[in-house]
Structures are given as C-alpha cells and as structure tokens.
Amino acid sequence: xxxxxxxxxxxxxxxxxxxxxxxxxxxxxxxxxxxxxxxxxxxxxxxxxxxxxxxxxxxxxxxxxxxxxxxxxxxxxxxxxxxxxxxxxxxxxxxxxxxxxxxxxxxxxxxxxxxxxxxxxxxxxxxxxxxxxxxxxxxxxxxxxxxxxxxxxxxxxxxxxxxxxxxxxxxxxxxxxxxxxxxxxxxxxxxxxxxxxxxxxxxxxxxxxxxxxxxxxxxxxxxxxxxxxxxxxxxxxxx
Length: 239
Known about the structure:
By secondary structure, the chain is an alpha+beta fold. It has helices spanning 2-30, 93-103, 111-116, 126-133, 144-164, 169-173, 204-217; strands spanning 80-83, 86-89, 178-186, 192-199, 228-236. It is built from 7 helices and 5 strands. Strands 4-3-5 form a 3-stranded antiparallel beta sheet. Strands 1-2 form a two-stranded antiparallel sheet. Strand 1 and strand 2 form a beta hairpin.
C-alpha cells in the first residue's frame, strides 16, 4: 500500500513539473515585443543665409599682372662705339671682305696655261696635261677642234698604248728602265703616218719596242675629224 501511494505521489510530481515547464515555454513564444521607449526630439530652426553675418575677407594688394609688356632698352647702334667721348666708325663686314679680295693677287699664267683654263667639255687630268706639255707653244697654233680632240683623247691614246706594251725580254734580263717620246700623225680614217722617236730612253731595245707597240695599238685609237699630230711618252719600269 505504501509503495502504491509513493508511486502515485512521484507520478503527480512528474506531471506537475512537465506541465509547468510546458507553460513557461509557451509564454515565452507568445510574449509580444515591448514597445520602444519614447525619446524626446527637439527641432531647431535654421537661420536663413541672409541673416548669417559673413566674415569680412581681408583686402589683398593687387599684384602686378604678368601680361604687361616690358619695353627693352634701345640697343646701341653697332656702327658707333663711344670711347673717350669720341665716335669710332666700325667698317661693315662687306667692306672688310672687299678689302681682303683686293689684297689677293692673281697668279700670272702663260699663254698656254690660260688657253687650257677656258671652259671645256671635261676636266683635264694630270696625264692629259703632261701630254699637252710635250707640244709647248706649238699647241697654240692648232685649230680649236684639234685642241679639243687632244684634251679629250690624249690620255686614252696613252693608256691604249701602255695596254699593248710588252717589256722586251732582253731589257728585263739587263734591268733596262726608262721613258721615250714618240710622234706620229693620226688621220680621220684611223691610219697613222710619220711615226718617229722624238726622245730616246737611252736603250735601243726599249725605243724599238715603243715604235712596234704603236704600230699594233693604233687600230684602237680614237679617230679625229682632221689630221692631228700626236705626241705621247712610253714608260718602262721594272717592279
């Protein structure tokens, strides 16, 4: 019997505890949020812009503008320089050049050189000039056409002759060297006449070889428009 009463009592206590815990949990879910506490808000009326006193800006000094043009000082004329309160005239550059040109002396030239300085079809090289010097004053007696032909073709005739030149074997063995001058007339058809030796090389083998070489090389010489006297020198040199 005691055991039965004890069991009932324990059962009642357990149910009470379960019921109370269930009720407290439900109350927590249903509980509405509390309204926020009232706060006091004050509104302040702003003053208009006209009523706000403006601060006085400090007066700044006007800066001189950079756009103003500054007139440079007038330059002193170059033609006048003051020294010891005296005016000294400075000559102009053009006048100095004129004076220098007047001081240069023109070199004196011979009649032959002055004729060669006239306008030509092409410049005279050193080889052509050396050939023309062989004629001396006789060059001035030639016609203008002959002069022009000699100026333009003498160097070519000399080079053609040297191309056909064969050194004599006896002259090589005996180490003969030198230079001789030959003369002949060149005709418009290409023939040559009166071939001769004007200056010897002091070796007969070399002199004879020059005459023989011209007899072979003349066929390649340029042809003049009139009979022209040709003078050239032939060099022999062992290297």
